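Predict fold of Fic-family protein; 157 aa.
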Amino acid sequence: MRVRDLPGTRLAHPVTGAVTYSPPEGRDVIIEKLRQWEEFVHADDGLDPLIRMAVAHYQFEAIHPIDAIRDLQDRFAVRARAATRDGSDIELLAVLFEQPYCRISTVRERCAVSRPTATNWLTALAEAGLLEDVKIGRDRLFINREMLDVLRQDEGD
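Predicted 3D structure, encoded as tokens:
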């Protein structure tokens, strides 16, 4: 299995550059973490399968993040500023890259803005083609399809 073997991978805030996460380094360390991850995924310990799936997804991304996310963050920040004058909010950009989707309530809480402001920001980004606005029940999810595409890419792509 090919794993990241170059040291120095860091996930950083898209605007400030502050490091928010440093994944494990070293091929042997990563292989061991992935072995432990595989044991967790296949364990038969009564844990709800949906919870196991969510935790496994998070753990995998934490062990083996994809460098292309940094490039996407940079491009996204430039395009977000062009789409909305408020879209350059540092915290908003951080929220949009914590996971490949977000909710209005998350933006409202994290960016300390009103619901209409959060809605306007996300709607403007969706209208600019940066996010996809999807209604699920009474909730609206704003999906970062480009980020999902990067996460789905094979390491060799």
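The chain has a mean pLDDT of 79.
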